[in-house]
Amino acid sequence: MKEKYIITVIGKQTVDGEQDQIEVITAGDMVIEEEKITIVYPEYSEDVPAKRTDTTVTLERGVLSIDRQGEMSSHLILEQGKRHECLYQTPMGQMFIGIFTDDIDTRLDQSGGEITAAYQLDFNRTVVSYNEFHISIKEKQSA
User: Fold this and answer.
1) Dist. CA 46–CA 18, nearest whole Å
2) Phi-psi map region of 36: left, alpha, beta (phi>0 left; psi -120 to 50 alpha)
3) 74-112 residue pLDDT tens
4) pLDDT tens digits for range 54-73
5) Given pLDDT bands bounded at 50, 70 and 90, which one contains residue 27?
6) Opening angle at CA 90, ends 100 and 37, nearest 5
7) Per-residue pLDDT for 143 more than 60?
8) Checking CA distances to 66, which of 22, 104, 115, 141 falls within 20 to 30 Å?
9) What is the signed CA dihedral for 49, 25, 107, 109, rounded to 10 degrees?
10) Hey, which residues does 10 pair with through a beta bridge?
11) What is the CA angle 127-132-135, rounded to 5?
12) Exposed e or buried b for every residue in 66-103, given b needs 16+ CB within 10 A?
């Protein structure tokens, strides 16, 4: 990975009226092809910096997929106005969760840009959380 970009991810989750927010700033890469944009970046645990999760975000024909490989692996599919069942792997086993995407907005080009999304997670068709994320991609400045 060339890590030509600074990637900032802000995620918000609301469960039972309580909101939690995380922020990750890391180096990564972005490849723009004809109809497909791929963003790749690592995330490291604050508690155990040696624990790494590799994340690949792909945007193709209005469908956003997020693949995370690490201790907590997942494959999420977000498509505005649609519900998808997605795999979520935890240390205790795997489960399928539903994701209904309320909104996706993307503004990307070779110099970077932004992706925002709002979606609901459900388990057995019962909503368990409301989620939002914002990904900002900026080219690293040459020294």
Assistant:
1) 22
2) beta
3) 999 999 999 999 988 877 788 889 999 999 999 999 899
4) 999 999 999 999 999 987 78
5) very high
6) 50
7) no
8) 141
9) -80
10) 23, 134
11) 150
12) bebebeeebebbbbbeeebebebbeeeeeeebbbbbee
Burial tier of 61 (Cβ tally within 10 Å: 0-12, 13-18, 19+): exposed
Number of Cβ within a 10 Å radius of residue 59: 19
Average pLDDT, the chain: 91
5-139 CATH fold: Lipocalin (2.40.128)
Strand (E) or helix (H) holding 42 = strand 36-44
- Give the predicted TM-score (pTM) of the model: 0.88
Cα 71 from Cα 22, distance rounded (Å): 18
User: What residue type is assigned to position 29 of the chain?
Assistant: D
Q: Which residues are CB-contacts of 103 (< 8 A; sequence separation ≥ 6)?
A: 80, 116, 117, 118
Name the residue ranges covered by the structural domains of the chain.
5-139
Confidence of residue 29 (pLDDT cuts 50, 70, 90): very high
